[in-house]
Amino acid sequence: xxxxxxxxxxxxxxxxxxxxxxxxxxxxxxxxxxxxxxxxxxxxxxxxxxxxxxxxxxxxxxxxxxxxxxxxxxxxxxxxxxxxxxxxxxxxxxxxxxxxxxxxxxxxxxxxxxxxxxxxxxxxxxxxxxxxxxxxxxxxxxxxxxxxxxxxxxxxxxxxxxxxxxxxxxxxxxxxxxxxxxxxxxxxxxxxxxxxxxxxxxxxxxxxxxxxxxxxxxxxxxxxxxxxxxxxxxxxxxxxxxxxxxxxxxxxxxxxxxxxxxxxxxxxxxxxxxxxxxxxxxxxxxxxxxxxxxxxxxxxxxxxxxxxxxxxxxxxxxxxxxxxxxx
Length: 327
Known about the structure:
Blueprint: E1 9-13, H1 18-29, E2 33-38, H2 46-49, E3 57-60, H3 66-75, E4 80-83, H4 90-95, H5 97-116, E5 123-127, H6 152-171, E6 175-180, E7 182-184, H7 194-203, E8 209-210, E9 217-222, H8 223-236, E10 246-249, E11 254-256, H9 257-267, E12 275-276, E13 286-287, H10 292-298, H11 306-324
Parallel strand pairs: 1-2, 1-4, 2-3, 4-5, 5-6, 6-10, 7-9, 8-12, 9-13
Antiparallel strand pairs: 9-11
């Protein structure tokens, strides 16, 4: 297993996404050679804002291009893979399930099949989601719970998660799976999501929109904590008790949507009342994770509480709105 990232060849799918961009920063800061798969050009992405685009080897392409993935892994003698690329929006999945299944399921088996045939590979981490569990009566979710997604996005993550585990159990591909809570942080430009959407509304003195009834319970997990969790997991993959396993990662604190929005508004010094639409469909109502397994096996604990995480996130968007949107 890689003990130091210095001069390691690391392949990151979804490198210009929220989690991917922060992971790339940490890897580069620790001396890794990063190869990033980019499907679309996102000029305002966090990868661009962090000034990282010129510091990595960028390959334009799609997870469904099996030949391209084989070329990347072979040509760059990849030692470690972080598979983060996915279609992550629940509303998009409900509208276009086929593309979601193609990306999240087929894309995952493609990268795992290529990994299986790559002699230089030392490890691969596949990003699943808390949504993979589906809706449960008993909370919090534990890693021993069955994966029972019902709606398109949830099902896509359940399938990808199980496929990843099967590649370890059948072929001994050195893989682990992460099931993170709802990620947030600077760099998420999907303003339909509650945290960036609320910050943007408050910045422009508009009323934040809550699509649900505001009572849905969720874990909210700061993105830099998620990066540290993944890097920590990578270091522990030499342990036979860890290899092939799935791990929950979250802040360990859950909030309902109304409370979350109110926290953001207080931090921004805004006295604005949110609009509750109560129109959310095909979404799990309450979900939060147990992180005891990661505490025990990986000696991992979150570093950023919700107050610090939200404050850092708000600061990122303040800079973004001023510099990119002319305010």
